[in-house]
Amino acid sequence: MRRHLAARGERVADLARLLARSALDTNPVPDWDHVTKVDPEGAKKLPLLYPLWLAETDAVSVGGSADVTPENTAAAFDLLTPLSTPVCHEPSGADHVTEESHDAADLLLVPEVLNGDSEALVGTLGAAVESVRERLAPDLIARKAPWLPDRVADWLASVATSVMLSDAAFEAYIVQNPDSAAARESGVGPDDVLDAREAKRRAMAADRHLESEILYLEYSGTFGGDEAVEALELIDGAMERSRVWYGGGLADREDVRTVREAGADTVVVGDAFHRVAEREAEILQAAEADLDPDTDPERIREWVADRVGADGPGARYLSTVPGVDDPLGLAREYTGATVRSWLELRARRERARERGEGVPVIDIQRTALRAALAPVVEDPDTVAATVARAALSGRGAGNGDGSHGSEQLSLSLFADGTAN
Ligand SMILES: CC(C)=CCC/C(C)=C/CC/C(C)=C/CC/C(C)=C/COP(=O)(O)OP(=O)(O)O
Ligand SMILES: O=P(O)(O)OC[C@@H](O)CO
Question: Where is this region: Disordered (predicted)?
């Protein structure tokens, strides 16, 4: 009887702990498993049917530490906001945040580096807060309500600044790869790399004092291995409210399992996604030589199966997503749809050229492109039109409808009919 009561008491205590933990989870950042980082710089490409690949990830984060501009950021958002996946903005400079980027992003992620120079901890943040308070917010208020008296407009600009900052999620970074662009940007040298104990201590300060929503262990470009595992194990046990994110060199399922088991709540994958586009450019160029738009779908399937293997970038990227059961099957399916869509777009481009038209008017109804996208997005018409426009528009040119030309797709068909 006494044992029975004790067991019941334990169950009640477990339940109370569980309830307390979920009731006390005040962190507004969802507990995502997998985030894909899209670097907006032109050299980092996107697969043509990026909405398919990104349908598997929990959220996309737009940002990078080199060659990011307000323009390429806006162009990346044009491509990504029509997707159903949430899109975050992670600026690495104060001027990357514009009214446009703010309207487009579901969540602003603000980096602060715990083991770099003071610029990267608080200097850039200070410049950014000043620029929001003194430029972005006043411009917005002046445009929306030009009739307001100056003092009221100024007060509203201050309120808007506070709202923007309280809606943002702060990321406390520990940058552990001194050879990365992120380390160069944040003044992290070899001597600043932290051992596991010191990483945990700073993480605790970020969690309890800075109240950072995210503690980000960053090995950008290289896998952290045992060293990262040791730090994650200590950090994980010490966090009260911060989500623990790990990013850097994740290349396959095994890497992801290792860091998740060590305590990462969320894994961030960057290069492994951009590599899908690099390989895709080669595959599409080969497809132009071997196949045509009327090729039997079964023949295209076989052709793709010969070129897309378990060690290829497509299957490897998908294998980093915990919920994907058959990365190779999915990579072949997506690549097949990409080949069909590409051959079709090229044929349309060609027909428009023969008729002497400039950029073809894209009727995306009844296209392989729209059919491929329909199962994974809420608004396939808009997404298919966005992809087709990006594939057919000129490099870096505006599209004449307020959207930005994109250089990011793995291949583009330019107005003169040449492919890149
Ligand atoms: C509050 C507002 C309006 C804006 C915030 C503007 C701020 C504070 C920017 C912070 C800049 C900063 C500290 C950058 C550090 C560098 C860093 C950790 C960048 C992360 O870049 P990744 O994209 O992960 O790196 P890779 O390019 O190497 O992949
Ligand atoms: O590009 P990789 O090495 O995947 O790194 C992802 C991310 O942590 C960079 O901030």
Answer: 396-420
Q: Which is nearest to 83 in space by CA: 107, 110, 52, 114?
A: 52
| CB of residue 125 inside a 6 A radius of ligand 1 | yes
CA dihedral 148, 152, 153, 154 (to 10 degrees): 160
| Ligand 1 centroid to residue 58 C-alpha, Å | 21
Please work out whether the CB of residue 58 comes within 6 Å of at least one atom of ligand 2. no
| E strand or H helix at 113 | strand 107-113
- List the residue whose alpha carbon is closest to atom 5 of ligand 2: 248
**pLDDT tens-digit series, residues 263-302:** 999 999 999 999 999 999 999 999 999 999 899 999 999 9
Q: In this structure, which amino acid lies at residue 4?
A: H
State the DSSP string of 281-347.
HHHHHHHHHH--TTS-HHHHHHHHHHH--TTSHHHHHHHTSTT-S-HHHHHHHHHHHHHHHHHHHHH
51 lines ligand 2 (CB under 6 A): no
| Domain range list for the chain | 29-271, 274-392
302 vs 314: CA distance, rounded Å:
16
Distance 102 CA to ligand 2 centre (A): 23
- Atom 10 (ligand 2): residue with closest C-alpha? 220
Contact yes or no for 373/398 (Cβ under 8 A): no
Q: Distance between CA atoms of 198 and 209, rounded to whole angstroms?
A: 16
- For ligand 1, pick from 65, 68, 99, 223 the residue to mutate: most ligand atoms within 8 Å of CB: 65
Buried residues in 359-375 as b, exposed as e (16+ CB within 10 A)? bbebebeebbbbebbee
Q: Is any atom of ligand 2 closer than 6 Å to the C-beta of 272? A: yes
The closest ligand to the CA of 173 turns out to be: 1
CA 405 to centroid of ligand 1, rounded, Å = 24
Tens-place pLDDT, residues 368-377 = 999 999 999 9
* The model's pTM: 0.93
CA nearest neighbour of 51 among 83, 75, 88: 83
Instruction: Give, using CA atoms, the residue closest to atom 8 of ligand 2.
Output: 247
What residues form DSSP beta bridges with 59? 35
Give residue-wise pLDDT tens across range 230-246.
Answer: 999 999 999 999 999 99
CB of 224 closer than 6 angstroms to any ligand 2 atom: no
Second CATH level (architecture) for the domain 29-271: Alpha-Beta Barrel (3.20)
DSSP assignment letter at 96: G
ipTM score of complex? 0.97
